[in-house]
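Per reviewer request, we include the raw input and output of the structure prediction for the construct analysed in the revised manuscript.
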Amino acid sequence: MCLCDSHTPAMTLSVRLDPALEARIDQEARRLGISKSEFVKDALERVLGIKDPAKLLRSVRSGTPMGVPDASRNVSKKMRAKLRAKRAA
């Protein structure tokens, strides 16, 4: 869960890191296949309690439905309809 929405511009934050910490961040971000920025944002969300992997795991293990159960049905049909509507506009 991100506290920002798509209408709020992202804030730029500069942080001074010692070279060893920056190297570790770079190494882990590359290992995970994400940018350093995404890695740092994820870490901050976890520390601040915005993102809780343990809560997600409990939710998945509980068998409780998450999201929209039929969201993956008729994807091609939905995309064609969206494209037709976009072309018509």
